[in-house]
TrEMBL record:
Protein name: TerB family tellurite resistance protein
InterPro entries documented for this protein: DjlA_DnaK_co-chaperone, DjlA_N, DnaJ_domain, J_dom_sf, TerB-like
Low complexity biased stretches: 56-71
Keyword Repeat on entry: no
Native source organism of the sequence: Winogradskyella litorisediminis
Domain J: 199-263
């Protein structure tokens, strides 16, 4: 599959708005660097199509009043852009974090698609990105369950080098706010990546002082929120990531059950 055809077939609403502009610049740098003998030469003109006519209404602009279903490709490019923001948060790009992104994309999409995504990712990391504008587009166009999955992945990137810096935490917190993710949901997902005595309670979004019945209600609520079926529209490639969050909710509940001795 050619690079441009992969992009064109994979995305929907992310073709427009600030995300589309970022993709266009990254794609343009790829085709502009191609030599006359390169297989990408035939894509050079196609790449120019991404330089949007300012008078042309985009898919993003037309659909602002309704939220279309997020495609796997929309999630993919949103993830690439936000990953680049987090990786640069501490002022450097750690190879372990880059390797984590590549490995996760390989696990989700296969080697060929992951390689194409990583080429695009390199073009994205060279740009100065308005985090607020990108996140506002994602918030408006992407469902809540998918946004939670984005946040889970971003914490995974930050933790990939074994040390989550305060700059990375601050950046992810800012992203969560722009994405319309509540502080409770943010703390719940954050707790999945840290070890502390109250982590199980944070994952279930409750205080340690609640009753056993409240623990059970919280578990049912969180199990519903993080159920993998909520991300089925993203395709089978994202099921493993969805199941990971769901599994951590189950483990948190089982930990509290054992600690309190109830069934």
């Amino acid at each position: 599959m050619s690079f441009v055809k992969w992009i064109g077939a994979a995305i929907g609403w992310s073709f427009g708005g600030p995300i589309g502009a970022i993709i266009g610049i990254a794609l343009g740098s790829i085709v502009d660097n191609a030599t006359d003998s390169s297989p990408l030469l035939g894509e050079r003109q196609a790449g120019k199509k991404w330089r949007r006519n300012p008078h042309q209404r985009t898919t993003y602009q037309r659909q602002r009043t309704q939220r279309p279903q997020t495609r796997s490709g929309d999630f993919e490019v949103s993830l690439l852009i936000l990953a680049s923001v987090v990786i640069k948060a501490d002022g450097k790009q750690d190879q372990r974090e880059l390797d984590f992104v590549r490995q996760q994309f390989t696990n989700m999409y296969g080697k060929e698609r992951a390689n194409m995504a990583f080429r695009l990712f390199k073009g994205i990391t060279k740009q100065n990105i308005s985090t607020r504008q990108v996140c506002m587009q994602i918030k408006q166009m992407m469902d809540h369950a998918s946004r939670l999955q984005l946040l889970h992945f971003l914490f995974g990137i930050a933790k990939a080098d074994g040390l989550v810096t305060q700059d990375e935490i601050k950046q992810i917190y800012t992203i969560a706010g722009y994405l319309g993710i509540s502080s409770r949901d943010y703390e719940s997902i954050k707790a999945m990546f840290y070890n502390s005595t109250n982590n199980a309670y944070k994952i279930l979004e409750i205080e340690k002082t609640v009753s056993d019945d409240e623990v059970k209600r919280a578990y049912r609520k969180m199990a519903k929120k993080y159920h993998p079926d909520r991300l089925s529209h993203l395709g089978e490639e994202h099921r493993e990531g969805a199941e990971e969050k769901f599994r951590q909710v189950q483990e948190a509940y089982e930990h509290i059950q054992k600690e309190r001795g109830f069934k």
